[in-house]
Amino acid sequence: MNYLDRLLEGVAVEWKALGEVAEIYGGLTGKVKADFDGGNAKYITYKNIYSNPSVDLDSIESVQVADSESQNAIAYGDVLFTASSETADEVGMSSSVTTPLNGRVYLNSFSFGVRFSEGIPLDPQFSKHVFRSSFMRTQIAKTASGVTRFNVSKDRFRKVQIPIPCPDNPEKSLAIQAKIVRILDAFTELTAELTAELTAREVQYNHYRDQLLRFEDGEVKWKALGEIGEFIRGKRFTKADYVEDGIGAIHYGEIYTQYGTWTADVFSTVRRELAGSLRFAKPGDIVIAGVGETVEDVGKAVAWLGEGDVAIHDDSYAFRHSMNPKFISYAM
After folding, report:
1. What is the CA radius of gyration of the chain?
2. Kind of pairing, strands 150-152 and 84-85?
3. Which of 153, 195, 212, 251 is most buried, judged by most C-beta within 10 A?
4. How far from the centroid of its chain's Cα atoms is residue 243's Cα?
C-alpha cells in the first residue's frame, strides 16, 4: 500500500461535481472610490485571493455596503476564486475561509465564492490545499475562456470534480482530511521558512543592484532611451494560435509572471504559418511589457538572449540598441 492508501484506511474517495455539492455566488458590483472611505464591511480583492491560500482579514480593506447588498456576504468554510486573469493558468486561483469571520465580509466583482451544501464533509483547512493542487488547477484552468484576458465560465466550473473521502461517514471523512492537512501544513511551514530566506536575499540583491546603478550627476551621461535605440511594437497573436511546436513567442503577460531579467528560452510557441504577420525581437533586444495588472508590472523588461528571433505580442515592445542587454534590463 502506498502512503495515501494508509491515510485513507481503505475507505473510498468519491468524486463529485461542484454543482452537485455547492452553490456559487458573485461579488459586489458598482463600487467607486468614495465607497472605501469609512467602510462598514471588509472587502476581499482579486489580489487578496491570489496571494493567500487562506483568507487573511488583516490585509484587506473596508468598503461601505448597503443593506440591499448583504445577500452575498462570505461565510466560514467558503472557498473564494479569482474570476479573471491575464493567463489561463492564473485564473481561478483560490483562497479558503479557514477561520470564523467577525463582521461582514464581501468579494469584489472580479471574484466569486463557492459555498458547500449542508452535510457535505469538507474541512476548510483541507479545501485550502485541495483547490491549489495541480490536478484541481488543471481542471479549473480548462473552465477559462478568452483571448487577451481569461475568464472562468461558471457553467463549466460547476462540472469541476472534487474528492471527498468517505462521504457517507462525515466523522471519519473529517478525521482523514485532518491527517492530510497536518502533513501538508508541516510542509507549508518549511516552505515559509525557505520563502523568508529567499525574501531576505531578494532585499539584499535589490540593495546592491540599486547601489551599483545609482549614479551621481557628472559620473555618467544620461540619455533618453529614444536616443540610444528604437522601439518595435509587437503584433497580435491569440490563445488559439498557441501550439506545442512552432515559432518561439513572448506574450506580454509572461514578462512579469514567468521571466526574470533575461532569458534564452521561451514558454510559448505559436503557429508557424503566422510568421509573415508577426514582429520579432532579435538577440540582444529588450522585450518590454506595454500593459499590466499593476503599475509596477507596466514596463517590466526581459533581455532576449536566445539564438534566433522571437515573436512578441502587440502589447509589448522590442527595444533595439547597441549596449549590453543585461545592463539595460537590470537598470530598467
Report:
1. 24
2. antiparallel
3. 251
4. 22
The 10 Å Cβ neighbour count of residue 196 is 10
Residue 27 grid cell: 461579488
Q: Helix, strand, or coil here: 305? A: coil
CA dist., res. 290 & res. 306, Å (int): 21
Element at 289 (helix H, strand E): strand 286-289
Q: Is-contact 315 148, C-beta < 8 A?
A: yes
Average pLDDT in the chain: 91
CA dihedral sign, ordered 258, 261, 265, 271: positive
CA dihedral 45, 51, 54, 59 (to 10 degrees): -60
Which region, left, alpha or beta, applies to residue 78 given φ > 0 means left and ψ of -120 to 50 means alpha? beta
Buried b vs exposed e over 39-73: b needs ≥16 C-beta within 10 Å?
bebbbbbbebbbebbebeeeebebbbbeeebeeeb
- pLDDT, one tens digit per residue, over 7-45 is 787 788 999 999 999 999 998 888 888 888 888 888 998
Dist. CA 88–CA 111, nearest whole Å: 15
Quick one: which of 63, 21, 22, 17 has its CA closest to 44?
Answer: 63
